[in-house]
Amino acid sequence: MKCRTQKQSQSIPEELRYTFKDFNLEFPDDDSCLEHVKEERWPNGVARCSKCKQDRKHHRVSGRTAYACGYCGTHIYPLAGTIFEKSSTSLRTWFYAMYLMGSTRCGISAKQIQRETGVTYKTAWRMFKQIRQLLSEDDLRLEGPTVEMDETYMGGVRKYGTGRPMRGDKKKTPVAAIVERKGRIVAKAVPDVKGSTLLGMIHDHVTPDSTIYTDELNAYHGIRSMKRSDGLTSAGYRHRTINHSSKVYVRGNVHTNTIEGFWSLLKRGINGVYHSVSPKYLQGYLDEYSFRYNHRDEGNLIFKSILARVSELAN
Q: What residues contact 290, with CB distance under 8 A and at least 6 apart?
């Protein structure tokens, strides 16, 4: 009896697919990458000439990463002020690293870039570190009206039993996150999970009058705002709690399942790909996973969003 296999359909809509073949066609060499950066910063090569004091058309200078004013010859440099400036690494290798980072859910290791491109591990690690700096959305404002907030702990070895680390267990780094249901997320490595710390994060990223769903952590109820201690309500938010310690995880629409899903993705990725992350660099990894989560509806075109950040953040 013949066994027939069912053809698996693509989970990504056709308009959001961007394959490795597409990448190779669009960016076959360093020149095509440079041209893309130039077009992102100065469409059609029209830029302000520092000498002419006017917007002028600029043309590529052969053998250099520069474009010259068509009138006076003054140069502009598309890579100036970007993460590519003064880098001896091939521009296409940079683009390929961004492509891989945007094409995976769980992350990509510097070792893999080293194996695939031939750069040193030190170079690969530095590239990823600088790419992650592009992905920070520190000023992101969550519009709600319904958000979930939770905290977890990363790294180290638990000193006392299970659950939240106890006093004296300083090897783990606390992380707090706020997520819109069916929306975006903000994740931060924080010094502690005291009420004042959590309220500061809420003020920075959540619009007033939003409904915030949390677990039973006392800090959410003991947050002090204007000398009152009635928790998030006194700070201008509606607060709903689910009691995990009583093994209650869903009560109607009261739950923190959305953010628990993000924690699962984050921890599987870090444990499986990076194995361990030091507190010093943890925020960069949180930014990477948060950026991919926030742009998950873009399919493989997340790569283009990462690439766009280069020009957006150029000096």
A: 135, 137, 177, 185, 186, 187
Q: pLDDT digits over 62-100, tens only?
A: 999 999 999 999 999 999 999 999 999 999 999 999 999
Question: For the chain, what are the domain ranges?
Answer: 146-277
Max Cα distance, the chain (Å): 79
Burial class, 93, CB count within 10 angstroms (exposed 0-12 / middle 13-18 / buried 19+): buried
Of 233, 237, 269, 240, the C-alpha closest to 254 is 240
Report CA torsion sign: 273, 275, 280, 286.
positive
Q: Which amino acid is at 277?
A: V
Average pLDDT over residues 151-177: 70
For residue 145, whether the previous peptide bond is cis, meaning omega lies within 30 degrees of 0, is yes
User: Candidates 3.30.70, 1.20.1740, 3.30.420, 3.30.310; correct CATH number of 146-277?
Assistant: 3.30.420
